[in-house]
Amino acid sequence: MLTDAEIKKKGVKLLIEQLGDVEAERFIKLLLKEPFDYTSWQNTLWENKSVKQVSEQAMKYRKKE
């Protein structure tokens, strides 16, 4: 299992790789600016969807890449 510091380091590295320095910084600022309850969001994320539906959606998304 990764430490908190390792997760942060990898997360920032991935953000920079995908978004670039400026956009990664903007993303972090946006997260800090808005209150966000991850647990609450997860509780409603797949509301009214079966495991099969979520799996099918994930497979379709993966094929796009």
Summarize the structure.
This protein is mainly α. Helix content is 80%, strand content 0%. The mean pLDDT is 89.
Notes on the structure:
The chain is extended. The chain has 65 residues and is mainly alpha-helical. The relative contact order is 0.07. The chain contains three helices and no strands. The protein starts with a helix and ends with a helix.
Any descriptors?
3 helices, 80% helix, 65 residues, mainly alpha
Largest sheet: none
Helix-strand category: mainly alpha
- Kindly report how far apart the N and C termini lie: 28 Å
Oligomer: single chain
- Uncertain stretches of 5 or more adjacent residues: none
| Order of helix and strand elements from N to C terminus | HHH
- Form type: extended
How many strand segments? 0
Q: What's the helical proportion of residues?
A: over 70%
Q: Report the average pLDDT across residues.
A: 89
Number of discrete domains: 1
Radius of gyration from the alpha-carbon trace, in angstroms = 15 Å
Estimated share of beta-strand residues = under 5%
Count of helix runs: 3
Chart the SSEs and their pairings.
Elements: H1 4-33, H2 38-45, H3 51-64
